[in-house]
Design goal:
Helix content: 55-70%
Shape: elongated
Structural class: mainly alpha
Order of helices and strands: HHHHHHHHEE
Distance between the termini: 27 Å
Strand order of the largest sheet: 1-2
Number of helices: 8
Radius of gyration: 23 Å
Length: about 220
């Protein structure tokens, strides 16, 4: 994954987009730690209005602006970027998180095997059990992501259809807030999904062999 670089304040507005710094993509050139979620939302609306394709803007630039807002409006992803300079999870971080998940799942399965004294260990495979658990978790996350996608699209449709003579529409503001909640939930679940899929890759390095009920080997 490529480390992001920041553009300087005296670069032109077009050059700001080449740096791939989410703050600069939104025109936020000051100390990044002082910006509140409200500051970020205001900056995004301003830049989105300026560069929206329907207003003659560049669709690629608009996509970058939207991506930058999605990152900075998610407290977890923003903190990660501020600390590492990466938009997402680094391969090293992902590997460690997946290893932690495997350790947790193996601990649960092995504790269960040991506590059930009438269980014949010759017929129990902890590796298979963990693989099954990961498969189920992946399916659950995928289902939740689909629900979020449907909910987000429904809110967007309602916002598009709902008209009001009021300059400030609290109903639309409420729905926009719900959409942002969906976006943050989606990002969190997407991160979880990455960890689960990496864990599924890592568990393939494990094997379980039985010579007798008294000998258990777990090699990796």
């Amino acid at each position: 994954m490529q480390l992001l670089t920041a553009a300087t304040k005296d670069e032109s507005s077009e050059e700001l987009y080449t740096g791939e710094d989410p703050y600069l993509l939104l025109g936020l050139t000051g100390e990044r730690y002082v910006y509140t979620s409200k500051d970020i939302k205001i900056a995004y609306r301003k830049m989105a209005m300026k560069h929206h394709p329907d207003r003659g803007g560049n669709k690629d630039v608009f996509a970058k602006i939207t991506g930058a807002y999605e990152l900075l409006s998610n407290s977890v992803r923003r903190k990660r970027f501020d600390e590492t300079g990466f938009w997402g999870v680094t391969p090293e971080m992902l590997e460690q998180q997946a290893l932690g998940k495997l350790t947790q799942l193996f601990s649960q399965v092995l504790d269960s095997f040991v506590s059930q004294l009438n269980t014949n260990l010759d017929y129990c495979n902890p590796v298979t059990e963990v693989e099954t658990m990961l498969h189920r978790e992946e399916a659950s996350i995928m289902e939740r992501l689909q629900h979020i996608k449907v909910g987000t699209n429904r809110y967007k449709t309602v916002i598009k259809r709902l008209k009001s003579k009021r300059k400030v529409n609290p109903v639309i503001s409420l729905m926009e807030s719900r959409i942002q909640n969906f976006i943050q939930a989606r990002e969190n679940l997407s991160n979880e999904l990455q960890v689960v899929r990496e864990a599924k890759k890592q568990v393939k390095d494990y094997s379980y062999e039985t010579e007798s009920a008294a000998h258990i080997f777990i090699n990796f």
